[in-house]
Design a protein that fits this description.
Radius of gyration: 16 Å
Number of helices: 9
Shape: globular
Structural class: mainly alpha
Oligomer: single chain
Strand content: under 5%
Length: 179
């Protein structure tokens, strides 16, 4: 039953991404969260990724999180996907093969049909670099860098950088997975 629910959710998510459009009034980021440079980064994301990031942001707010670093990370966590094309069909393959089989297809050659898998594979690290260059705090940068792996896989990596509040990383990961 759980598998069927996951399939239904992913089919619904596919059709939402297929028709993702951002309406002028829908892109309301509360004042003070993103600097002008960070807003420009947000604007580089696809409409589907912008909508997803807004959902992650609002999910965290509804759960009672008000930490600016976490909420900025929620808005910018997928900015690394903007470094190259990531067509919907590649996204579908990544979701269908969540066990990581798609990773063998990743190629750093921008002219290859396999490049979008590389973009996805590298988006957390690329996003962290972009966020740092846009003036995000060290905590926000590290939350973005670690957002795509389950928290239990990140703790050793993150300890090399800063002492990350594990609760914030878990909250971001869960909100990302839920949306």
């Amino acid at each position: 039953m759980e598998f069927l629910a996951a399939v239904i959710y992913r089919v619904k998510q596919f059709f939402q991404a297929l028709g993702a459009r951002i309406c002028p009034g829908q892109i309301v980021i509360p004042n003070g969260y993103l600097s002008q440079e960070q807003q420009a980064l947000f604007g580089r994301m696809s409409p589907a990724d912008q909508l997803h990031s807004l959902k992650v942001f609002h999910t965290l707010r509804e759960q009672g999180y008000h930490e600016a670093d976490l909420l900025v990370a929620a808005l910018l966590h997928d900015i690394g996907k903007a470094i190259g094309p990531l067509p919907l069909l590649h996204r579908v393959a990544i979701v269908l093969f969540r066990d990581g089989r798609w990773e063998r297809l990743a190629s750093p050659d921008p002219h290859s049909w396999r490049y979008p898998f590389f973009v996805y594979q590298q988006h957390a690290v690329a996003g962290a670099r972009l966020a740092q260059a846009a003036g995000c705090s060290p905590l926000t940068v590290e939350l973005i860098r670690g957002h795509h792996r389950p928290p239990h896989q990140c703790s050793n990596d993150l300890s090399r950088y800063y002492v990350i509040e594990e609760e914030l990383l878990i909250a971001l990961w869960e909100a990302d997975e839920a949306n």
